[in-house]
TrEMBL record:
Official protein name in the record: Peptidase A1 domain-containing protein
GO biological process per UniProt: proteolysis
Zinc recorded as keyword: no
Gene Ontology molecular function terms on file: aspartic-type endopeptidase activity
Keyword terms, alphabetized: Aspartyl protease, Disulfide bond, Glycoprotein, Hydrolase, Protease, Signal
Domain Peptidase A1: 106-444
Species the sequence originates in: Stephania japonica
A Pfam family annotated for this UniProt entry: TAXi_N
Entry superkingdom: Eukaryota
Keyword Membrane on entry: no
Residues annotated as signal peptide: 1-28
Family: Belongs to the peptidase A1 family.
Length: 449
């Protein structure tokens, strides 16, 4: 990772840009907007800094640079986690600096139990699990699910078939038949202890009875989303497999840009109301990592030129885990070094401005670019689908116009990553369709509102 150059950084701090501060008009209507119900099978997707998100920093005055640098650090941890997933190795905890929140970036409101209790859960397309912080949880920091208040809550025993599908249920080997299915797992730089449980999960207006989830009883570290995690992966025990009859393993989302005025996007569950006309590419299945959404990226274009990338940097390899995935939990697209360097070099060449600076992990930033300046577009070419990203998906700008950075990076040096991750910044304001029965992933431009 390129260190921040001190003079540049000091100059930046003095700008204290607050893209995250809302105009007064927006603040006045917060109450009304936030309590609006989710309808049908569509959930409102919020950025964690959304005015309706309970995880929005209290002072609201996080500077743009601070946000960017923090986000990049969280992405490093996320990449380490994804790399451990693809390599099927246990996660090496990373030392974390001061972090605002180290969980996935987008949250939705889910309701658990009878009567329903609302939790704002993180959405994670690369994970199958559903985790809910439960009453009595040691180390949980936000609202918890009061299990005793739900008439439909049950814990699952070691004998339950679902318990066999959970990794880390060590206590169950040789356990007496009545023991509950407790297990420990790691996630990013965190660890947790949980009891496999079931209850009704209500998404928008759809109840999913007897939904199996991990009821968290102890948490260490800062990576576990404070009010739980809703995994949208496609492996066993995932929401998709548990709601098969309701949603047929089909969903789409539109992720809002974090600096748009009211941020909200949507998570649309089930085959109904999905876009009919949408460009798609086949989903690839990695038998070792069934939950990840792999696709076949075959080329990257900067402006009109196809960048010269060694085919091995893009090729899908189920054994090593190499290839390209779509992930909603990483913010900035990460390419393996052999792909990133030529893309970046071509981008710099096309931009043609002499002074390239860096910010946090971004190595291609420009100071004081006139607003009339036209940056090149970047296209990702997938089998059967080209996605050309407009500038809003490629550059992060400080609102004062001081600095513009290419919002992509290579994997940091300490992460031996083989996977290319198409991340949320590059997906914003697009509808991304996950159609598992037809084995395809679709992308279409859409203004999320
Ligand atoms: C899980 O972690 C807890 C501490 O959080 C520990 O008491 C327990 O023994 C662990 N269980 C297993 C199965 O490793
Ligand atoms: C779901 O749980 C209820 C009790 O809460 C039970 O009556 C019902 O049989 C369960 N359904 C399934 C499919 O397991
Ligand atoms: C978002 O904000 C715009 C104007 O600020 C408003 O017209 C629109 O209705 C808002 N959308 C939602 C979903 O609140
Ligand atoms: C680039 O940096 C040099 C040295 O810092 C400075 O003299 C020059 O004006 C800069 N050029 C532009 C276009 O900003
Ligand atoms: C993607 O773009 C390349 C040229 O830039 C073209 O050859 C190819 O046919 C396009 N693919 C699709 C599916 O449109």
């Amino acid at each position: 990772m390129t260190p921040i150059q001190l003079p540049t950084f000091l100059a930046l701090i003095t700008l204290t840009i607050t893209t995250l501060c809302l105009p007064p008009a927006a603040q006045a209507s917060v109450g009304l907007q936030c309590n609006g119900p989710d309808r049908g099978s569509t959930l409102k997707v919020m950025h964690i800094y959304d005015q309706c998100s309970p995880f929005r920093p209290a002072n609201g005055g996080v500077s743009w640079e601070e946000t960017v640098v923090e986000t990049m650090k969280k992405d490093d941890a996320r990449l380490l986690y994804l790399s451990s997933l693809v390599a099927r190795k246990s996660v090496v905890p990373v030392a974390s600096g001061r972090q605002i929140i180290q969980s996935p970036t987008y949250v939705v409101r889910a309701r658990v139990g009878t009567p329903a209790q609302t939790l704002v859960m993180a959405m994670d397309t690369s994970n199958d699990a559903a985790w809910v912080p439960c009453s009595g949880c040691v180390g949980c920091t936000s609202t918890v699910f009061a299990t005793a208040k739900s008439t439909t809550y049950k814990t699952l025993g070691c004998q339950a078939p679902q318990c066999q599908q959970v990794s880390g249920a060590a206590r169950c080997t040789g356990a007496i038949p009545t023991s509950s299915c407790t297990f420990n797992q790691t996630y990013g730089s965190s660890a947790f202890a949980a009891t496999l449980s079931s209850d009704t999960l209500t998404l928008a207006t759809d109840p999913i009875p007897n939904y199996t989830f991990a009821c968290l009883s102890a948490v260490t570290g800062t990576s576990i989303p404070p009010q739980g995690l809703l995994g949208l992966g496609r492996g066993p025990l995932s929401l998709l497999s548990q709601s098969q009859s309701l949603y047929s393993s089909t969903f789409s989302y539109c992720l809002p840009h974090f600096s748009s005025p009211n941020f909200s996007g949507s998570l649309r569950l089930g085959p109904i109301a999905q876009p009919l006309r949408i460009k798609t590419t086949p989903l690839l299945r990695n038998p070792h990592r069934p939950s990840l959404y792999y696709v076949n990226m075959i080329a990257i274009r900067v402006g009109r030129r196809i960048v010269d990338i060694p085919p091995s940097a893009l090729a899908f390899n189920p054994t090593t885990g190499a290839g390209t995935i779509f992930d909603s939990g990483t913010v900035f697209t990460r390419l393996v070094k052999e792909a990133y360097v030529p893309v970046r070099d071509e981008f710099r060449r096309r931009v043609g401005l002499p002074n390239v600076t860096s910010l946090g992990g971004f190595d291609t930033c420009y100071n004081n670019v006139p607003s009339s300046f036209v940056f090149p577009t970047i296209s990702f070419h997938f089998a059967g689908m080209n996605v050309t990203l407009p500038v809003e998906n490629l550059l992060i700008h400080s609102t004062a116009g001081g600095l513009s950075c290419l919002a992509m990076a290579a994997a940091p040096d300490n992460v031996n990553s083989v996977v290319n991750v198409i991340a949320s910044m590059q997906q914003q304001n697009h509808r991304v369709l996950f159609d598992v029965p037809n084995n395809r992933l679709g992308v279409a431009r859409e203004r999320c509102t």
